[in-house]
Write the C-alpha cells for this entry.
Amino acid sequence: MCTGRVDLAFMLRAFSNGKDGVFIGGCWPGECHYITEGNYLALSMMHLCRKLLTLIGLDPQRLRLEWISASEGSRYAEVMNDFSQTVKSLGPLGEGEGIDKNILAFRMKTLQSMIPYIKLVEVERLRVRLKSVEAVEAFYDSDEFDTMFRELIADKLAICQIMALLREKPRSTGELSQLLGLSSSEISRHVNIAARQGMCRFDESQNLIAAAYHHDADETVAKAEADVKPVALGNAKIDQIVEKYQGKPGALIHVLMDVQSENQWLPKEILSTISQKLEVPLSRVIQIASFYKTFRLTPKGRHEIHVCNGTSCHLRGADRLLDSVQELIGIRPGEMDADSKFSLETGSCLGCCTLGPEIIIDGQHHGRISPDKAQDLLKNYA
Amino acid sequence: MPRINSAAELDALRKDILSRKDPEKPAIAICSGAGCHGLGNGGLIRAFEEEIEKHGLAGTVDIRATGCHGMCEQGPNVVIYPEEIYYVKVTPEDVAEIVKQTVQGKKVVDRLVYADSVSGEKAVHLNEIPFYKYQSRNLISNNTRIDPANIDDYIGIGGYAALSKALFEMKPEDVLGEVKKANLRGRGGGGFPAGLKWETTRNAQEKQKYVIVNGHEGEPGAFMDRAIFTGNPHLVLEGLIIGAYTIGAQQGFIYTRHDSKLLKKNIDRALEQARAYGLLGDDILGSGFNFDVEVHFDVGIFVSGESSALMRSIEGRNPEPRPKYIRTSVSGIWDKPSNLNNVETWANVPQIIEKGADWYAEIGTERSKGTKMISLSGNVVNSGVVEVPFGITLRQIVYDIGGGVPNGKKLKAIHFGGAMGGSIPESLIDTPLDFDALGKAGAPLGAGALMVMDEDTNMVDATRFFLTFLANESCGKCVPCREGIRQLLTILGDMCEGKGEAGDIETMQEIAEVMSAASLCALGKTATDPLKGTLRYFREEYEAAIKS
C-alpha cells in the first residue's frame, strides 16, 4: 500500500486503541512508480498528526515516518530498533505523559470526531503544492502554519471538547478549565465564541454555562423532534403559537415573531419545528429568519443594549456614545459578552429623534445620554 | 358595546356621548408619544393617578394618556383642560403641585410653563407657545383631546361622521371625485396623487382588491406617522374604510412597526372597538358594505417600506422589490390590485369628505394641497412633530416653530427625505414647503423628516452615514444597488480619512448615474440622492477631502 493511503484516521485509530507508537515506512521521495507521489502527502499527514498529538498532550515522537525501499533490509532493522527504543523510553501511551486514562480517551474521542473537518482544512488550507521534503518541513515549521493551525484546528478542538463536556451537564468556567488544562481566560474566549454561534449560553439560575441543547437521554427515540430539545421553549408552546395562526397565509413571520418574543432568539431546532408544523420548507424559514433583522439566530445577553444611530442621533453625537459603551462593556455591536450579561446592537431610528443620542436597555429608552452618563447608566444593570 | 346599524344610530350615539361629557370637567392629558415615553412618562401617569386618588378626585377629573402632542423636545408634556394650560418637562415630583394648584386651585404653576430659551418669554396656553402658534394642526391637534384607547372619545369629536356621509350620501365615484378634486398627494414620499392611484385600483379587472396602510416609517428621523397612528388610530382607520368603499376592496391590511408596543396595542384595540360597533366587518353601519382589516408588522428592515416589497412581506415572504412594469395598484398582494397609501395620506381622507374638496384645496400651494406633518429633528432647539400648511417657508419651520439652531451655532444645511433625500444649503432657506419646489431645489420632501444640520456637520461624513445605512438595508437582489453602494462607501471612507484621490468625485458621479438608471426599486434609484445633492451644493468639501 502506498504511504499516501495512510489516512489521518488510521494513525489516530491506532493510538486510540492503545498503541504506544505508530511507524509508517514507505518509498523514498522522488521514486514513486506511479507518478502519484503519495509519499509527500504521507509526509504532510505525519506532520499534521504530530501537531495534533502535541495538542492533546502526547509526545509527537510516538509517530514516525521513514523512507525505506525494498532493498534496504539492514536500514529497516536499524530504524525499527531505534523506534522501539524511543517508544520504550517514552513509556506507555498517556502514562508516560502523565495524562489520566479517561481524560486521554475523552480527548482522543473528540479529536477523532473532528477528523473529517481536519481533512477538509488540510485540503483547503494546509496542502503544500511543492514536491520537496524541505518545502513541506519548512511549511510545518513556519509561523504561517502555526497561526492557521491554532485558529482553524486548535480553537475548534477546544470548543468541541467544551461542548462535549457541556452536553453532559452544565459546568462552570473553573471546572472546564481544570478538565481541559486550559487557562480560564482561554475557556472564556472559547465559550464566548461558542455562545455567539448559539451553541451554549450562560445559565443565570445556576451560574453555570449550559449547552443550548442536550441530546435526549433516551437515544433510542428515533424521531428527529424528540432527539434534540430546545431548553427554553417546549414543542407544546410552539404548537400553541402555530395553532393561533393556522391556515393563514403569511403566518410564518407572525409565528417567528411570537416564538422569538417567548424565547428571545431562534435556535435551529425551533426553526425546523416551525417548518414542520407550518409545512413551510426549512429553507424558506431560514431565508426569512436570516433576512429580517429583527430575528435573532444567536442568543442574547440578559440585558440588551441598543444604541440608536439614526440620522438625528448621529448628528447629536451617537458615534461618541457608541464608542464609550463599547469600551465600558468590552464588546462590539452584534456581540455578547462572556458571562451573557450584555449584548450590544446598533440600529436605526426608533422615532425618538428628539431624545438623541439615545440608548435603549431592555426596551427602556434613555434619552440625551452623553458618553459619561452612559457609565452611570450601565452601573444599574447587573 | 351595542352594534350601530345606521347613520341615525351613529348620530344618536354621538349625542349621547356628548351629553355625558362636561366640557368644564378638568382633564389631565399626559403625552404618551414616543419621545415622552422615552423620557419616562410611565412614572408620571402613575403619579397623577395616585395623586388624584389621594385627593378623592377620581371621577371628577379625567386622566388620559394621549398620543404625541408634538413638542417632544420639552417632554414629558402635560395639558390641563379645560383651560388648556401647557406644562413642559414635568416630573413625578411636580404632580402634587399641579393637582393642588392647577386642577383644584385653577392657578398656573409658573416654573413649569414654557419659556423661550433665548428671550425667556413665557407662554401658558398651548396656542401661545411659538412652537404650536405657527402650525396648522388639522390632523394632530386632536391628539391632546382624545384618549386613543377609547373610540367614544373619537366619535365624540365627530369621528366616523365622514364615513357615514360617504356610505349613505355619496356613491363611490363621488368620493373618488372629491379626493381627486382636493388633489390629495401621497405623503409617503412620492407625492403621487392619491385619487389617481385609487382610480387605477378601482378600475382594475380583478374582483378581489386590497387596500393597505403603510405605517412602516422606516426612514431614520421620521416619526410623525406613528405620532398620529398611536395617538389617533381611528382617524387613519376611518380614512382606510372610506378608501376601501371607494375602491371596492373588502380586505385591508395595516403594515406597521413592530417595535412600538403602544402603537401595536392602540391599533389592535381600535380595530376591536370598531368591530364591536359595526364600523368594521360585515354590513358596516347597516350599509351593506363589508370590509375588515388585518395587521402585519415590519420585521426590521427598511426596504420593506417600498410598496412591492411591503406586499411580499404581507404574503410572508422576503421583502424584495420587483420591477414595476405593472404597478402594484394593478397587481399587488397575491397579484391582486392593491392600493397602498401611507398613514398620513389616509388620515387626510376623513376631513376631505367631511368638509369638502373646496375647503381642503384652499390650504397649501397650487400643486401641493393641505397640511403636511414634519418630523423636525437634528440640531434644532425645539424638535418634535410639526404640522404646517404647504407653502410655508423652511425658515418659518426652522426658526419660528423650531426656535433655530441651539448653542449659538450657525445653520449649515437642511436635509429632507432621510437617507435617500437631499440637503440644501442655508441660502435656500426661503424655499416654500412644496413637493415640486423642494424636489427642484434638491431636497425632495420624502415622508417629511426634516433634519437641521449646524455648522459642525461634515457633509462628506453625512453622506457616508446615509450610504452606510442604505448598505445595511439594501435587500441585495439587484446588482447596481448592492455593489454600487459598496463601492461608493469605499471611496467615501477614504475621503473621510483624507485619503481621497484625484478622479474620485468623477468616479462617484459615474457610479451614481448607473445606480439611478439600473436599480430595480426606489431604494437603489435614489440611494445616491444625498451624494448628488451634496456634490451640487457642497462640492468644496469633497474637493478638500482629496489629497493634493
